[in-house]
Amino acid sequence: MEEALRRDAAMAAQRRAAAKDPDGGALCSPLVVSEHGYDARLPGDGGGGGGGGAAVAGAHRMVSGVTGPSADRVGGDGPPPKGPLSLLAAEQSWTAVYGRLCERAQSTFVTGGPGVGKSSFLRAFSCFLRSRLSGDGAVVIVAPTGSAAKTAKGVTYHSFFGFMKDYKMLCVDGVQEAARLLALDRWAPIARRLAKVQVLLLDEISMVSADNLDVMYELLRQSRPASAPPVVLYAFGDFLQLCPPFGKMAFTASCWTTVFGEAFLELTHVHRQGQPDFVAALHDARLGRCTAAVQALMDECKVADEAYKALECEVLHLMPRHKDVVAHNATCLTRLCPDKRPPDFTAVDRVTEDPNRDRSVPVPNLVGISTHTIAAALTDCVAPPRVPHCRGARVMLISNQFLALGLFHGSIGNVVDYEENGDPVVRFSDHDVMETTRQGVQGVRDAGADWVEVLCPPVEFESRILSRPGVVAVRVQVPFVLGWGITVHRSQSLTLSEAVLDVGEAFGAGMVLAAMSRVPDKRRMHVRSFCGSRVVADRDALQLYHASPRL
Questions:
Q1: Domain 93-267: CATH superfamily, name plus number
Q2: Which long-range contacts (C-beta less than 8 Å, at least 24 apart) are formed by 259-263?
């Protein structure tokens, strides 16, 4: 907090100096937005730009947007030049790029800033690969969240690799952890599934922890016969955007250099945003710099109190902290239903034997586990103890149980009805209805060309009780929460037609950037709060991009 306040003061002084001397107050070197993207100079590479003072946040070192002669430099005179593949990508010769990657037959990291089409590249490339690898399960797409998995047209890596929601590595390294998991009865069918994989495409790699990447790599390796060729991995993402919710970034994994080598393919042509000043601001924010371009954009998009009233409960809000989301949702619910509303959905908590427990240890005793122990285990459960609601309330799914319908953790809908027993019915509008959607199947109550209504009775959410090995706490609750606002982390990988950014208290590297880059048109990005000192980039990630050769 003290570091943030010092940055705030430094930036305020800098803006005052800029007002007195416009030329001397420039916060960055000129940025050229060309037909094929933008200049990718790092902070401090020429002009008046520079990285900011380093601040420690969790396991990541960050560079903030304070510029000036004392700012830290990361690297020398700019990133390495584009290699042949990156040049082809800059020319948008996609068929040639796919062909070269396929012929290369080596694991590859594909990266680039927000809006350059990484997920689109992944989807098209997967089709290219499947036209050449026709075996069942040969080409698989996975992602860290349900929303990212839907965007990539894949599944979550948790479901594909058999990880529980709160999975964390228990052994000292990925080799031993994979061996431990594969020895469990439950992993036998999972191992057979993994053995079929020839190519794995992993989206949003920045949100995957190093430990989990190591375990996934080892599970793939150990599930295959020794004579089989290794699986080819293609990782997509941007380490200058959001970090994983826990653990270190994936490029620090033990397997990273072995799998991906030192070089990567970089995409630079921005597709999502078309306004040059918007692209320039995103470029600077990605490098942890709150430059004149960033500040001008946020000032231009700032919404006054009177105008905000019309947006408050109509436009999706992106916020950094869960507690702010909860407060905003409560405000909107009260406005929608100021008088008497239905009783909150109240969770039922209990304990049961962990279906994934180690069968070599005795069956756990479920008697005598206190309600306090159960509550402690469910503290971080995605399903809250109580869910307020009413007819018309905007809600967000917190379960992937409807993936077969194209709905995922993060899908937004509205409560439109209740069954006689009180179970809610949620309508998801502007939805790509799956061809297999049928009334009465998988909870579907009704459907149209671009909408589906789904019955949402309570479901089970599990969390391990660490003090009682082999036991899990179970919470039975409806599979949604109020959805007028979502966290910035939940918005990663989404393209939103319109959003309100309330990011004045953003924390962590890449958070402000992730929020800014969700909307294609700056005229539909409404800034409620913003603090320039919260524009930060991970220092080690900056060094990675500065030093690594491009393919």
A1: P-loop containing nucleotide triphosphate hydrolases (3.40.50.300)
A2: 259/107, 259/217, 259/233, 260/107, 260/108, 260/109, 260/233, 260/235, 261/106, 261/107, 262/548, 262/549, 263/83, 263/548, 263/549, 263/550, 263/551
